[in-house]
Design goal:
The protein is of the alpha/beta class. The protein folds into two domains: 159 residues, NAD(P)-binding Rossmann-like Domain (Rossmann fold), CATH 3.40.50; 222 residues, Orthogonal Bundle (Rna Polymerase Sigma Factor, Chain: A). The chain has 19 helices and eleven strands. The strands form two sheets. A seven-stranded parallel beta sheet has the order 4-3-2-1-5-6-7, sandwiched between helices. The protein has a four-stranded mixed beta sheet with strand order 9-8-10-11, with helices on one face. The protein is globular. The structure holds nicotinamide-adenine-dinucleotide (NAD) and magnesium ion. Magnesium ion (MG) binds next to α9.
């Protein structure tokens, strides 16, 4: 196997000094200890898929931590099944309802501090960061600071604070493994060469539900239209991000941090079938891709079992049935979020925090039917236009930029 071929990931995930390959193996001997997995955001779409994967990998893997924002009944049901040593609930008002439903040996941690404590506890080896939005940043930082292996679904954490997380991982020896399907595909394709041999990354995009819609039709799309994703079943926020193509914009920034490549070498390619999850073109013209049915259990499992592969639960590809795969360039006129994504990736500093927070606030406003679909990206652009980028922010400055952007969205909505 080729190792040491990623730039930003190398110190975190490939470092022979800090993460011995054997410790990542999912094939311990019968007597060896199980890999202990903590799932942050366990009641969500990625969280539930992770529960399935860990279940299928028993007894070599077991769940030791679970957490959710509010859905305490589901969290209690997951805890009854997995018997973790601790669970955390972000919303303190639900703690008293949850407590009596927990087994006596499961500790209950409460509030944002409880989440941070759970992610850094010594009784887990692997933390799956699957909280949605910047709300996942503190616990992701805690897991990275504690030197864990971190399966990263929470792309917003990198968009907001890649400049903090990547050096922190390098320092603590934490291992960042991408769960986002495109980044997992790039990560896997990268093993075919060296970083210096990479020409460009082709980040594939389904194009979302409005790929074939006109600009005016997109502007008037309803919440129901936007939640109808053609290929992936995901949580509501990322589904709206896929409809605006903000998801791909966030993924450009995510790729830039994970793989340490110049923004110019990251290209978006629309591929409606979502079969090719992304590709890497090398200097000799060879293009290496990772393919599979659109099922997040595959990249989740790969992150858990890396560098090994074990039998997976997703449906297999049948090329004779698929027959053809389609591609088209992205339309930056109808999907201006992509243009903004490139601008923000180039700007760096506080731009990512503002971009992400403005999007979160605008998506929330759209989902609660306070703004039309077309206003989401307009609001993000307006807020970015009002922001003066600070080039080398610390974490406090990034969090201030995040809070400022959310307030600005509210101000712009009054106009
Ligand atoms: P979801 O809405 O289905 O689930 C979100 C989870 O986060 C829930 O468990 C919820 O309780 C928890 N949560 C929300 N706010 C929280 C808070 N303030 N504190 C603590 N917990 C909180 O979302 P999802 O679709 O599973 O996406 C999760 C993350 O994974 C996102 O960053 C998304 O971009 C990324 N991702 C998702 C998919 C997918 O297929 N769903 C694919 C790639 C990447
Ligand atoms: Mg993705």
């Amino acid at each position: 196997m080729v190792t040491g071929n990623l730039v930003s990931l190398r110190p975190a995930s490939y470092s022979d000094a800090t993460v011995p390959k054997e410790s990542l193996s999912p094939e311990p001997s019968a007597e060896a200890e199980a890999v202990r997995v903590c799932i942050m955001g366990s009641t969500g779409s990625i969280g539930r898929s992770t529960m399935d994967v860990v279940h299928s990998l028993r007894p070599k893997y077991r769940v030791t931590g679970l957490c959710a924002a509010r859905r305490w009944r589901e969290l209690a049901a997951q805890a009854a099944e997995a018997r973790p040593s601790a669970v955390a609930i972000a919303q303190p008002t639900h703690a008293e309802a949850l407590r009596p439903l927990l087994n006596g040996s499961t500790e209950l941690l409460v509030g944002p501090e409880g989440l941070v404590e759970l992610a850094g506890r010594p009784d887990s080896d692997f933390v799956v960061a699957a909280i949605v939005g910047a709300a996942g940043l503190p616990s992701t930082i805690a897991a990275v600071r504690a030197g864990k292996r971190v399966g990263l679904a929470n792309k917003e954490a990198l968009v907001v604070a890649g400049s903090i997380l990547i050096p922190l991982a390098r320092h603590s020896g934490a291992c960042l493994l991408p769960i986002d399907s495109e980044h997992s595909a790039i990560f896997q394709s990268m093993t075919a060469g060296r970083p210096s041999e990479v020409k460009r990354i082709l980040l594939t995009a389904s194009g979302g539900p409005f790929r074939t819609w006109s600009g005016p039709e997109i502007a008037q799309a309803t919440v129901e239209d936007a939640l109808r994703h053609p290929t992936w079943k995901m949580g509501p926020k990322i589904t709206i991000d896929s409809a605006t193509m903000m998801n791909k914009a966030l993924e450009i920034i995510e790729a830039r941090w994970l793989f340490g490549l110049p923004v110019e070498s990251i290209e978006v390619l629309v591929h409606p079938e979502s079969i090719i999850h992304s590709m890497v073109e090398f200097c000799d013209g060879s293009v290496i891709a990772q393919l599979g049915t659109p099922d997040m259990r595959t990249p989740i499992q790969y992150s858990l079992t890396y560098p090994n592969r074990v039998s997976g639960c997703a449906t297999r590809l049948d090329f004779a049935t698929i027959r053809r795969l389609n591609f088209e360039p992205p339309d930056l006129e109808r999907f201006p979020a992509l243009r903004l994504g490139y601008e923000v990736a180039r700007a760096g500093g506080t731009a990512g925090a503002v971009f992400n927070a403005a999007n979160e606030a605008a998506v929330e406003a759209f989902l609660s039917r306070r703004i039309p679909f077309g206003r989401i990206v307009q609001l993000i652009e307006e807020v970015l236009g009002r922001h003066t980028v600070s080039p080398s922010p610390d974490l406090d400055e990034l969090l201030e930029a995040d809070a400022w952007a959310r307030r600005e969205v509210m101000e712009c909505m009054k106009d």
